[in-house]
């Protein structure tokens, strides 16, 4: 259970880092914080982090905590790269 929570924390930390960087942006250029779409990644990325941490660490007795956080933080990039690199053989078979 701990790696799943740490993976979710890693996904959330990336989003919080983006939020902290907005302090450097001029007030007129900041996003609309009242819009639900802005806050959606704060729920989706920790979920992705938890799912990938579960897949990566399932059944392991000893888990490196920093690695679990790293997996969660990189989860959006991992999922994006997995989606964009679907082999052409699989794409062609689904067209038939």
Give a structural overview.
With 96 residues, this protein is mostly helical. The chain has a domain of 67 residues. The protein has 5 helices and no strands. Helix 1 runs antiparallel to helix 3, helix 1 packs across helix 4 and helix 3 crosses helix 4. 24% of the residues are buried. The model has no long low-confidence stretch (mean pLDDT 84).
Quick synopsis:
The chain is mainly alpha-helical and 96 residues long.
List keywords for this structure.
mainly alpha, 96 residues, globular, single chain, 5 helices
Helix fraction bin: over 70%
State the order of secondary-structure elements, H for helix, E for strand. HHHHH
Structural shape: globular
Query: Low-confidence runs (pLDDT<50, min 5 residues)?
Result: none
Structural class: mainly alpha
Strand content: under 5%
Number of helical segments?
5
**How many β-strands, per DSSP?**
0
Largest sheet: none
| Rounded average pLDDT | 84
Q: Cα-atom Rg, whole angstroms?
A: 17 Å
Distance between the termini: 42 Å
Task: Describe the secondary-structure layout.
Blueprint: H1 2-21, H2 36-39, H3 41-57, H4 65-84, H5 88-95
